[in-house]
Amino acid sequence: MARTTNHPIPHSSRANPIEVDGTSFALNGKNISYRFHVDSAAGDLILNHFGGPVTEDPVAQIIPNGGGWSNQAHLRREFPDLGRGDFRTPAVHIKHAKGFALCDFKYQSHTVMKGKPALHNLPCTFGSSDEVATLIVHLWDSCSAVAADLSYSIFPNYDAIVRSVTITNKGRDTISVEKLASLSVDFPHDDYDMLQLQGEWTRECTRARRKVDYGLQGFGSSTGYSSHYHNPFLSLVSPSTTESQGDAWGFSLIYTGSFNIEVEKSPQGLTRVLVGMNPCQLSWPLNPGESLESPECVSVFSDSGIGNMSRKFHRLYRQNLIKSKFVYEPRPVLLNSWEGLYFDFDESTIYRLAQASANLGVKLFVLDDGWFGDKHPRINDKAGLGDWVVNPKRFPNGLKLLAENISRLEAANSKETLRFGLWVEPEMINRSSTLYEEHPEWVLHAGDYLRSETRQQLVLNAALPEVQEFIITSVASILENMPVTYIKWDNNRGIHESPTPANHHAYILGMYRIFEVLTSRFPDVLWEGCASGGGRYDAGILQYFPQVWTSDNTDALDRIYIQFGTSLVYPPSTMGAHVSAVPNDVTGRTTPIRFRAHVAMMGGSFGLELDPDALPEDDKAQIPDLIALAEKISPIIIRGDMWRLNLPEASNYPSALFISEDGNQAVLFAFQIRTTGVHNYPLLRLEGLDPSATYKLDGERTLSGATLMNGGIQYRFGSDYDSKVVLLEKI
Ligand code: GLA
C-alpha cells in the first residue's frame, strides 16, 4: 500500500524562518522551503522537500517496503548511517570499540533558537538574531551511546541553509569516526546535471558539467588542502538550467582541508549528495565525553539559474562569513614584485620598483618571496623557508628602514603615501634552514618513511601547539617590527606524509587557530591567501582572509575562465587579479595592456605584477588611466552583484555586468577574444537592471533598462583581445 507523508506546516513570505509541528520541521527562506520530519516508527529523519517555496509537503507516493532488496531505498534520509538496509553511501561511519561499524541514530529532541551558535574551532557563518535562525536536532544511538546533533541554520534573505553535525561519544570506550559528511541530502527521482570546478596549477576553477548517472560519482581532494584540482563546491542543476533560468542547488563546504563530495544516483532513481571531510584522512578517535564537529556546508537554492545561485553565495559570504574589516572596502591598487623581479633583487632594486609603482599611482607595494633567511638566504626556492629573519646581504640597512622609506613615497595623482606589504609562507620549511637544523621533528612525517619534497620544501606540522606558537610568533614579530599593512600568506605544496590520518584534520584546526589569533591581533592588516595561486581558495580561508590570489596564471584570456569559474561560488571582491607583462610567463600569449587590465578589474584586489621600467613606453603610459578606472569602479566590484552575461566557454564575447547594491550604478565588461572577418557583432542583452529606469552610459547616451535588457547593445570591436568597460548610471 502506498503511504503519503503530509504535514500541515504553512509557508508564507512572512513565515517564521523555522516552524515546527510536533516532529515536522520547516525552514523557510524568501524563496525556498526545506522540510523534513521524523519517521515515527524508525526514528529516522526523512526529507520532504528542498527547493522553491511550498505551503505543505509535496504528495509523495512511496514504494511499499522499498521494493527489491532494500527497505530503505525509497527513503530520503537526512543523516544516512550504515546498516538498516540503506545500501547507498552513508554520511556517517563510526567504528565502535567492539568492532561494529553500524549506527542506529534516532530522533530524541530538538532545539530552536534565533541567531546561530559558532563552531568551536572551525570557521563558520555568523549572523544576528534578525539574520539567521537555527534548528538543532538531537539524535541518539542507544546501542553505542553516541549522540549526533544536526544543526540547520537558515539565512532567509539569501535562501541559504547551513548544516553541520556534531558527534559525541557518551559511552565508556573510545570510538573512531571514519566518515562524517557535513551535508547529506537526498533528491527525488529526476534528471540532474552536476556542475563542479576542477583544474590544476595555473588553470584553477574550470567549470565542468556532466549528467548525474546511476551509481556513485564524485570528486574531492586528498592533498591536505582544498586544492587546485577540485574546489569544495558542487552545484546540482536541472538538465535545462542555464545561467539565468532553471533550478540550481549549490553546496559549498567551509573547510580548507581535504574534502569529499559524492553524488549517487540509486538504482531506484533517487540522487544523494554528500559533502564533507575526506574520510581517508579522518579516523578521528573520540574518547568518552569527546565530540567531533564537522565543518559547515552551505546550501542555497535558486529557481532562476546558476547566476542567481552565485549571487546568493556572494552576498552571504560577504555579509555572514568574511570577518575582515576590509570586506566592503575597495582595496588599494598594488604592485607585487614577483613576476617583475622573481628572486633577483636587493635593497636598491626594490626601492626603484617601489618608486616606479608610486609614480604610476599604485597605493600598495608588495615585496614577494626572497626577502628573508640569513644563514640560509632565500635567493632561490632551495633554502630559507622557516627562517623569518631579513636577509642581511640583500638589505644591509634592514628591511624596516626600507619599508619606512617606501611608506613615505607619494602615489602619483593622489595625496596618499605608498603602503608596504610582504609575502610569507609560514607553514613551510626548507631542509636548508636554521629551523630544520633545530627542529627536524616539527616537520610532517610518518616514522621512517621518506620525507618527500615538492619545490624543495617540507610542511611543518601545524597540529603541534609548539609549531602553532612558532608561526604566530614569527608572523607577529614581522608585523610588530615593520610598517607592514598587507600580508600575502602563501602555501606551495600538498601534504604527503602524515603521522596519522587524523593529523590531517588536526593540521587544519591548527591553521585555523593560527589564522584566528593573527587576524584578531592584527585586524588592520589586509590579509591575502594564496597557495601557488588558487590552491586553497575556499570558504574556510575567507573567514580570515578577505581576498585570495586567484591563480599564478596572469594571462588575461585564461583569467576570464578562471575568474568566471571562481565566481560560481566566491564573491568577485575576494579575487586578487593582476596585470603582468607579455608574453605571459605561463602561457607565452601576448594580449594588449588594456585587455589585461580590464580583465583584472573584475577582481576585488586589482594590481600590477611587473616591472614598469621594463614595459614598452606605450603600455606604461596607459597604466595611470587604467588604475584610475579600476579605482573608480572598485566599489561596485567589491559590494555589487555580478551577472555573468556570456560565458567564455560558450561565446567569443565573454561579458559580465556588476550592479551596485542600490542599483544606481553598474559596470559592464565586454570582451572580444578573436576578431572575425565580416561578421556581425553580438547584441549584448544586459540583465538585472530596472526596466523602467533610465541609464546613462559612460556619461554619454541614455537608454532605458528595458531597452538594455530586452533590446541589448552592440559594440564594435577591433582586433583580437579587444575589450570595453562601460559605466552605467541611473538618472
Ligand atoms: C607562489 C605564489 C606566487 C609567488 C611565488 C613565490 O607560486 O602563488 O604568487 O608568491 O609562490 O615563490
TrEMBL record:
<dbReference type="Pfam" id="PF16874">
    <property type="entry name" value="Glyco_hydro_36C"/>
</dbReference>
<dbReference type="InterPro" id="IPR050985">
    <property type="entry name" value="Alpha-glycosidase_related"/>
</dbReference>
<comment type="subunit">
    <text>Homotetramer.</text>
</comment>
<protein>
    <recommendedName>
        <fullName>Alpha-galactosidase</fullName>
        <ecNumber>3.2.1.22</ecNumber>
    </recommendedName>
</protein>
<feature type="domain" description="Glycosyl hydrolase family 36 N-terminal">
    <location>
        <begin position="44"/>
        <end position="287"/>
    </location>
</feature>
<keyword id="KW-0378">Hydrolase</keyword>
<dbReference type="InterPro" id="IPR031704">
    <property type="entry name" value="Glyco_hydro_36_N"/>
</dbReference>
<dbReference type="InterPro" id="IPR002252">
    <property type="entry name" value="Glyco_hydro_36"/>
</dbReference>
<dbReference type="InterPro" id="IPR031705">
    <property type="entry name" value="Glyco_hydro_36_C"/>
</dbReference>
<dbReference type="InterPro" id="IPR013780">
    <property type="entry name" value="Glyco_hydro_b"/>
</dbReference>
<dbReference type="InterPro" id="IPR017853">
    <property type="entry name" value="GH"/>
</dbReference>
<comment type="similarity">
    <text>Belongs to the glycosyl hydrolase 36 family.</text>
</comment>
<feature type="domain" description="Glycosyl hydrolase family 36 C-terminal">
    <location>
        <begin position="654"/>
        <end position="728"/>
    </location>
</feature>
<dbReference type="InterPro" id="IPR013785">
    <property type="entry name" value="Aldolase_TIM"/>
</dbReference>
<dbReference type="Pfam" id="PF02065">
    <property type="entry name" value="Melibiase"/>
</dbReference>
<comment type="function">
    <text>Hydrolyzes a variety of simple alpha-D-galactoside as well as more complex molecules such as oligosaccharides and polysaccharides.</text>
</comment>
<keyword id="KW-0520">NAD</keyword>
<dbReference type="InterPro" id="IPR038417">
    <property type="entry name" value="Alpga-gal_N_sf"/>
</dbReference>
<keyword id="KW-0326">Glycosidase</keyword>
<keyword id="KW-0460">Magnesium</keyword>
<dbReference type="Pfam" id="PF16875">
    <property type="entry name" value="Glyco_hydro_36N"/>
</dbReference>
